[in-house]
Amino acid sequence: MSVAAGVEYYVLLSMGLFCIGLFGILTRRNALMFLMSVELMLNAANINLIAFAFYHGNLTGQVFALFTMALAAAEVAVGLGIILVLYRNFRDVDVTVPTTMRW
Amino acid sequence: MNDWIAIGALALVGLLIPLGMMAVSYLLRPSVPETNKRATYESGEVPTGGTRVRFNIQYYMVALLFLVFDIETVLLFPWAVVYLDAVESDAVSLTEILGPMVAFVVILLVGLAWAWRNGAVQWAQTPRQVESDR
Amino acid sequence: MEGAFSYAPAIAAFPLVAFVVALAFGKYMPKKGALAGILATAGSLLLSVVMLVAVASGEVYHGTIYEWAVGDALTEVGADGIEFTFGILIDPLSALMLVIVSLVAFLVHVFSLGYMNGEGETGLPRYYAGLGLFTFSMLSFVLADNLLMAFMFFELVGLCSFLLIGFWFRTRSAPSAAKKAFLVTRFGDYFFLIGVVAIASTFGTLQFAGEESFVAAAETAIADGTTLFGFGPETWVTITGLLVLGGVIGKSAQFPLHTWLPDAMEGPTTVSALIHAATMVAAGVYLVARMFGYYAQSPTALSIIAFVGGFTALFAATMGVVKDDIKQVLAYSTISQYGYMMLGMGVGGYVAGVFHLMNHAFFKALLFLGAGSVIVLMHHEQDMWKMGGLKDKAPVTYWTFLAGALALAGIVPFSGFWSKDEVLYDALIVGLEQPVILAAYAMGLLAVFFTGFYTFRMVFLTFHGEPRTDTAENPHSVGWSIKFPLVVLGALALLAGVANLAPVAKLTGMDITYLEFWLDGEYGYVEGLTYHDYHELVAFEEGYISSETVTMLLGAGLSLGLAVAGAVTAHVLYNVPEPTRHTAKLGGAYDVLRSNYYQDEYQVWLAEGLTLPLARAADRFDQTVIDGVVNGVSTASLFGGDRVKRIQTGIVTNYAALLVAGFIALLLVLGFIGGWFL
Amino acid sequence: MAVFDLPGWTGLAPALILAATALALFVVDSISPRSANRALLAGVSATGALASLAVAVWFIAAGVGQGGIDGLGVIDLFDGQFVVDAMALYFMIVVAVVTALVSVASYDYMADHTYQAEYYSLLILAATGMSTMAAANSLVTIFIALELTSLPSYALVAILKDNRGSVEAGLKYFLIGALSSAIFVYGVSLVYGATGHLQLDAIAVALEEDVADGFGGLLGLGILMLIGGFAFKTASVPFHFWAPEAYEGAPAPISAFLSSASKAAGFVIAFRVFTTAFPLEVTGELIGLDWTLAFVILAIVTMTVGNFAAATQDKVKRMLAYSSIGHAGYALIGLAGLTVDGGELVMGAAMMHLLVYGFMNTGAFLFVALAEYWGVGRTFEDYNGLANQAPVACFALGIFLFSLAGIPPLGGFWSKYFLFTGAISVGTTSMLLVAAALVVNSALSLYYYSRLVKAVWIEESVVDRDTLAQPTGLYAAIVFAAVMTVVLLPAFGPVSETAIDAAAAVI
């Protein structure tokens, strides 16, 4: 059982991870948990990329995975900044609290 | 199909073992509620205050800076991998190899300089310093 | 002479400038804009004469000035594009008409100096602006080289008539007359518009002249037997021709849309002169002449034109007999005379129709201006029974008016005789083979008697006998600006017949039928637009009583005899010192005639009894069903909007859930359609 | 022309100039932190944007991206990671124009703000990202450019740190954005898995060479997830949830910036990805249906949701936000109308609409900025009778709104008209449905746009107002946008030609 032939397992794994992340987003109200869940989803994509890079025999996917990580970090940085000002304004990091604008 | 059996077995075992251990310990452990058990662990010292202390905002700033700059270095790796090969090859000139990465680093440096000048790495300002900065 | 034609747009542009000037600066000008109008129409007249000379020297002009829409179009005959343009067509017909229109307009402007300025009217800038715009519209209409442009200016002419008839808008009757004129002619114009659209969509062109004209296209279609919109080509040409004719009947005041014209007398008399002689009413007949090649291809349409014309001639003449108002008499005579022109056109007598159009323009302008003069003399009294004996007190008016009356009655050798006789002759020779035309001819002939009668009744009542009122005793004096146009037109009424002395030519064999040569392309001509071409197209057979000359003499003698008989009857009845009414002898017919055959009544009934309930029903439908649906839709939309925006709960977790749900729904729909789950 | 002599990477000059401007702003701020030299900062930003605009226009004029004898052809960069063609330049122009307008307007709007330099540098960074998006030709570069746009945008929306609305808007924008970009990346990974490539042309080649056989499901899911990413960027349903709040809460110039430039940039990558990487025929065989169907659905739903929700709003800014969603639906027609052998007409029309939209929508939001600057309040009633105090700006607002509604003869009418005729000319049932939805929604949109015009021009003011200030920068930007909305009308010939040519080139 070669890895290349078993690429579908990686897809399954990544999909599982993706769904866990999604589940987290849908159920968690803490902004930080939200961020973590997004990270999970991004990493699910990374798994795919790396697995397929191996499968297809080129490095494109791996390099892209590096970019994804870098951008994920940047995203977290911005996100944490926003969560900080959220806390300062609403005294909470619960994402369901700010509802001043709706409808 | 037999691939799936292996995976399934792994998943099953992976689930069963922790669940089983939790179940066993739940069954075996004595239940003695005591406030000390819920106290914050501070290496045996007497705890002062709760776990939910507010950290200074500077921690976040530094953490964020570290995070970003640390991850950006990841991008140096692919470049480093091909660097030697590229230097030896005649097809690409040195500027073409070095140029992009120098530009990248310069951009990072500008960012760092900006962060520095804006006090992001200035440690723990006293209120007086804050006043004087205003 | 090619260069001369480049000034052609100026013919129409001068009065337009006058319009603007009078409107903008009229108040500050010494004669309140009259001078601008006179100068402009004089310029137009001058240029028109130049055009006439140019055509006489063998040149014609057909060019496009502005192309305002070009597009692909799928037409019935297969042409695949259509162009909407403004263009100018100057051929013998339009050159002649230009001179007539600008001459009459010029004289009317001059006359207005005396009639309006002299009488201290207010609102003169508006009046002169209206006249300028009126002249501009009519001249542009004459210059038009395509049906759509013609239609536009046709409508503008109608608008101007509305403005001018309603000049005295503070009275009760003038605005109502203006509205009536506008609405009745508009009613005809609806058909015209439909006709324009029908012709455009059939042939893909609206040009009057040239290879690309709809006339030529219709000819081709008839020759090829192409089926057009499910009809045979001839039938379709008849239908479209009759649709256009709707506009003609409205504007030229033919039965049954003639009712507006007598009421239009509410406008200033000068405006009546312009409307009757040269512009509004003439526009209809001119349009028939302009696209005669098209009508010539449909015997049915021609017969209808001829019959309507003959009937209107008689119908209006009988009503003119009992009128007391001098202008009313003239109004019915106008309707009647245009009936003759239609009759002439309808029997293929293109030259005769145009000839009568020209002569009528002169003598009717004369008569109206004469009537205007009389009205000035009588201190704005229009009832003929209150006049009498003006002959000696206003000789110029009398003699010129008499010349016009003789022309109108068709007494030899005045111009009216020659043209009316030619119309009747053309009708007779065709009528000998066609019973319908013969009936039209008979009516036309009978109308000659009535024409002679009412004309001279008017002359005798107005000018002869003893003055019946104090104002007739001491008339107001009139100035040169009133006399000058009368003299010019009087001379023309006497002499214009020289243009086409067809009977004389036939008898003596001299080549003196100048107008026929003119229209037949002896001078300049546009291919396909000559009398010759038309004559070949018209499918009527012609018959004669024993010989051509005999027929002609017989017809001429008959009509002259009837005219003289009418005049003599009038003389016997009214040329006495103290004329009395003889209406009692008419019995019940008097009431019918007096009430204009109840034309207004039945049209009012049509409007009030039929159209109004229909309109009310439509309004109710609109108010309830349509508005209900519209309001319902808007309410539903707003309610829907209110629901839709509730999706936006403000809670970001819900957004994420909805987002994922939406995404999955999309996935499911697409997967279902794409068969991913099979 | 001289474009020939420059090295290849200068093809990206419009984006690079913006990047350099952003760096320059950082340098300025590093030299004198906390200085509030607004004129210098706004000036540098506007200058950078205008320089970028000038270069892009110059490139188009010089014939970059045009074939034929006098054309310079498409510039390919970094093994096809970037491509500078007519469409890229077209959208670079849109982005640069909007950025310039927003920079000028911000001079007044952000007058009292503490973090001036940060604001402008973030703005220009986001613009850089958008400009780069226009030229990106690989899923890698697209993703990076996308994030380069998004991250500063999040910060910009939340930049009023003490304003609850702004922070809430930033949070929502960020959370939905993070989720969407995760979905997008996952889609990228699936497409990569199916084809083994990330460069768009290479994907197309791989699809044609049957590399992806057997991966149809992955590919289909991947494409759908890519659509999700674009839908987020263009504020299309169901990824639109961030838009009303983000536009409402953000500083008004930023709302203008996001709803115009960011949307346009989102569309350009959608156009490029779907025309270049997924040829209809091959992809259709693999995944079992035409992906245009997805856009048909999205277009109809998006314009309906946007317009219906906008109809009953009380707050002007939020109404504009929803209308912006509606307009995204209109522009989606450009993708829905693609066919195997054509569609440049309808896609060109969508591009035109985005250009016109860049002016009229920016203008409308800038008017809101002006109103916020005056402090007149946020609802329709608060705007009552503004025309008495500020007729010029209100006249411009009238132009923007009527153009947005698509009233002839304004620019918005023509682009909508082209979209409509384009949709009709495709002729399929679904496209006729789309065209019908376009008409119905435009009619509805007239209702709420005219409501605002009525409030401003006809209604009497509820409160007595003093004379209102006339901030130079905001006024200049509004008047310029209004003039452009009108001027685009006579200029529509060349614009539509450029747009349709650009669309034809990528199809």
Q: What's the gist of this structure?
A:
The complex is a heterotetramer of chains A (about 100), B (about 130), C (about 675) and D (about 500). Chain A is an all-alpha fold and about 100 residues long. Chain A is built from 3 helices and no strands.
Describe the model.
The complex is a heterotetramer of chains A (103), B (134), C (678) and D (507). Chain A is mainly alpha-helical and 103 residues long. Chain A has 3 helices and no strands. Chain A has one domain (7-90): Helix Hairpins (Orthogonal Bundle), CATH 1.10.287. Chain A is elongated, with a radius of gyration of 17 Å. The N and C termini of chain A lie far apart (55 Å). Chain B has 134 residues and is mainly alpha-helical. Chain B has a domain at 57-133. Chain B is built from 5 helices and no strands. Chain B has helices at residues 2-28, 57-74, 76-88, 94-117, 127-133. The radius of gyration of chain B is 27 Å and the shape is flat. The termini of chain B are far apart. Chain C has helices at 2-5, 8-25, 34-56, 92-117, 124-143, 147-165, 173-203, 214-224, 233-251, 260-263, 269-278, 280-290, 292-295, 299-320, 326-346, 350-377, 395-409, 415-431, 435-463, 470-473, 480-495, 502-508, 514-519, 531-537, 548-574, 588-594, 599-646, 652-674, and strands at 61-72, 81-90. Chain C is 70% helix and 3% strand. Chain C starts with a helix and ends with a helix. Chain D is mainly α. In chain D, helix 1 packs antiparallel against helix 2 and helix 3 runs parallel beside helix 14 (344-374). Chain D has a two-stranded antiparallel sheet with strand order 1-2. Chain D is globular. Chain D has a domain at 292-507. Chains in contact: A-B, A-C, A-D, B-D, C-D. Chain C: Keywords: Membrane, Transmembrane, Transmembrane helix. Chain C: One of its GO terms (cellular component) is membrane. Chain C: Residues 144-438 form the NADH:quinone oxidoreductase/Mrp antiporter transmembrane domain. Chain C: The chain crosses the membrane at residues 6-26, 33-56, 93-115, 127-144, 150-169, 190-209, 229-250, 271-289, 301-322, 329-355, 361-378, 398-418, 438-463, 484-505, 552-576, 655-677.
